[in-house]
Amino acid sequence: MRAVLATDLSDAIETALSSRTCLECLERYGIDQIDLVTVTSPNVTAGMPGSDIGARTKRGLERQRRMLEEEGFDVRTHVMRGTPHRRINGLADRVKADLVIVGSRGQSPLEQRFIGGTAKNVARTASRPLLVQRILEHGEEDHEVAAEHLFQRILYATDFSENAERAFDQFQHLKHAAKEVTLLHVAPPERRPGSDPDAVADAEARLDELAAELGELGIETRTVVREGAAVEEILAAEKEFEPTTILMGSRGRSRMRRLLLGSVSEDVTARAHCNVLLVPPTGVR
User: Fold this and answer.
1) What's the pTM?
2) Nearest CA among 148, 141, 229, 152 for reference residue 187
3) DSSP assigned state of 190
4) Which of 127, 131, 226, 249 could form a disulfide with 233 if both were Cys (CB 3.0 to 4.6 A apart)?
5) Residue 149 banded pLDDT, cuts 50, 70, 90
6) Domains of the chain with CATH codes
7) CA distances from 1 to 73, 234, 257, 259 (A)
8) Which PANTHER family does the record cross-reference, listed alphabetically (predicted)?
9) CA dist., res. 104 & res. 91, Å (int)
10) In the structure, what pLDDT confidence band is assigned to residue 50 with cuts at 50, 70 and 90?
11) CA 76, CA 97: separation in Å to the nearest integer?
12) What is the largest CA-CA distance in the chain?
């Protein structure tokens, strides 16, 4: 399987690349080939007299390539100019990547995290599964990944839509990495548990069916049905169960225009403390 890994050649990204545990998790997901890509601004001219931007970029990319190759990955490197999210997603489509990986740095481990501009735009336009890897900043030169065991504990949020089912299919790749899964459904306002017990029973039954499928894969599973606003309940479940990654589908609002994240997946991706694995709708290219 093949992944496109976006890098800005920063210390934060190197923190993630230097984590053997993170890389082993990618291997258990099935990744053995990585396209390492960095995108430079179209306004920066590497060939300007006295400029060594191009040389520094190549040196940084070569250093990170070696880090990945030392862990057994087959690596190709790409230096592109242009708008980062367009180049990253364009490369992913061209090489038929199974996964796109972007890092997102939080302001502080004690403050609310905000998804960076590039990560947000990649997520909004991604046509392939996207892992937003959270990297915590403790200072300009002090970083750590939010969770080294990327997929050890998964919080799967589902509204039972077709796209949510597509996200559930990711467990075929996660079965060798996931040890514990929480299956979460948040009842929408018009079908709150107190007012519609049948809807709750139906949701519980459907989650039990999914849990049985994961049980056959040897994954420990719990099911949870919550009442309230979807984003807040998903984030509350994150705080309670401490997943390493939240898995959910993202739904586009228009196929004729730029694909936008649904408000729930966008808000969760922006505000979650852990990694987020987003799966776009079928047929979005």
Assistant:
1) 0.86
2) 229
3) G
4) 226
5) confident
6) 2-145 (3.40.50.620), 153-271 (3.40.50.620)
7) 11, 30, 30, 25
8) STRESS RESPONSE PROTEIN NHAX, UNIVERSAL STRESS PROTEIN MJ0577
9) 19
10) very low
11) 13
12) 72
